[in-house]
Amino acid sequence: MALPHDSAARPQRATDIGALLRDTRFLQALAQAVFVLLVLLLVRWLIGNLTANLGAQGLDLSFSFMRRTSGFVVGEGIPSNRTDPFYYQYVVGLVNTLRVVGLGLVLATIFGILAGVAMLSPNWLLRSLVQAYVELIRNTPLLVQLFFLYFGIILTLPGLADRITLGPVVLSNRGFFIPRPVPHVGFPAWATVSALALLIGVYTYRRRLQIRVRTGAETRPATWAAALIVGVPLLAWFILPGQPLQLELPELQGLRMSGGLRLTPEFAGILFGLVLYTAAFIADIVRSGILAVTHGQREAALAVGLTSTQTLRLIILPQALRVIIPPMTNQYLNLAKNSSLAIGVAFPDLYSVSQTIFNQSGQAVQMIALMMGTYLIMSLIISAAMNAINARLRIVDR
Fold it and tell me: What pLDDT, on a 0 to 100 scale, did the predictor assign at position 167?
């Protein structure tokens, strides 16, 4: 009794398989799966071949050497000494790179936006100077700019005896010295009030912005947020007992500067070089983004009584950001990767320290892989953050 049922099921199964083999989506997925499998097999063969060749020479791919004593000192950043292991020195180099990249991203963004807006200024002199700066920086190599900035400007500054003093800032070939805020007795209470004011200010901004979008009423979210974030800490500074912060000014004592915060010539060279270079590209991106907003938007804003500053802040820039963010992500990634050129000005960053570890240990493959992985993770974090901002600014299709 089961035979007729089985014979009827076989044509049905054959028909299903035939339909599946004619399905374009299935064939594409199958081809991708086969390609990924072949790539994995190739990678496995390459790693196995490399491991076998290194094993034949008495070498291995482990990172156990990172626990050995380094025998060298990283001259800047977290304190280190010769008895520290390789992995600690690697962390010191990583922190130095993060310092340069973090400050560089903030300063390049600020200067780039200001320069981009200045390129559209009706003031001919300002516009011409900024355009000349952008064209000069964009059309010369970054490494050449670093050499000029470090060897041609910073190292030619006068010594400490003939230092240049600009108010509380001291410039010399031994570095740049700036005032340093030092916490005092009232700092914990003031910091707590400031943190609460920041949280309340952010909440107030978002809440009043939602009300303005929903009702159309002018709720001034930025004004209220600024009043809370800036006004409350400023008021607490004078009301709370004790002085929260005190500026420690740099002073010359003998043959060296004491107090304040020092930017070494190497750190200043790589930081200012990256900022000037990246800001030039960001400026052109900002200029293009602003010009991408139709001129009718500006005319409509001026027609309803907004000033030029309000038009730029409330109408033009929010729309231009949708055009600005994607290419600006590339510039942020370039800044992070270009920080490896710090070796050109003798700044002990991640690349410089990794090269020293390689020279001391002889483990080339591991150090190159570790360094590439670190830069990859850094770039992925920047990309993820910028993609999140871009997704938030993107217009939602209805």
Answer: 83
3 state SS of 396: coil
What is the β-pairing status of strands 175-178 and 261-263?
Answer: antiparallel
Backbone angles phi, psi at 259, to 5 degrees: 80, 170
d(CA 362, CA 367): 9
**pTM, 2 dp:** 0.81
* Mean pLDDT, the chain cut into blocks of 10 residues (398 residues total): 53 64 78 91 85 72 86 88 93 95 95 92 91 94 94 91 86 89 86 92 88 79 87 87 83 82 92 96 92 84 80 81 90 94 92 92 87 94 91 65
Rounded to 10 degrees, what is the CA torsion of 60, 63, 64, 69? 120
Exposed (0-12), middle (13-18) or buried (19+): which is 64, by Cβ within 10 Å? Answer: exposed
Residue 349 and residue 101 in contact, taking contact as beta carbons nearer than 8 Å: no
Instruction: Please give the Cα distance from 16 to 255 (Å, whole number).
Output: 88
CB 375 within 8 A of CB 337: yes
Residues 278, 274: Cα–Cα separation, whole Å: 6
d(CA 284, CA 153): 26
Q: What is the pLDDT of residue 186?
A: 82
The Cβ of residue 279 has, within 10 Å, a number of other Cβ atoms equal to 26
Distance CA 280, CA 365 (A): 36
Q: Which residues contact 167 (CB under 8 A, 6 or more apart)?
A: none
Domain ranges for the chain = 2-56, 86-144+263-393
Q: Judge whether 96 and 347 are in contact, CB under 8 Å.
A: yes
Cα 132 to Cα 129: distance, rounded to the nearest angstrom: 5
Q: What is the DSSP letter of 344?
A: G
Q: What is the CATH number of domain 86-144+263-393?
A: 1.10.3720.10
In sequence order, what DSSP letters do the residues of 200-220 get, joined into one string?
HHHHHHHHHHHHHHHH-----
Residue keyed to tokens 């070089």: 273
What's residue 13's pLDDT?
60
Cβ-in-10-Å burial (0-12, 13-18, 19+) of 343 comes to middle
Report pLDDT for 18: 67
Which residue type occupies 100?
A: V
Segment holding 258, helix H or strand E: strand 256-258
C-alpha 155/C-alpha 171 separation (Å) is 11
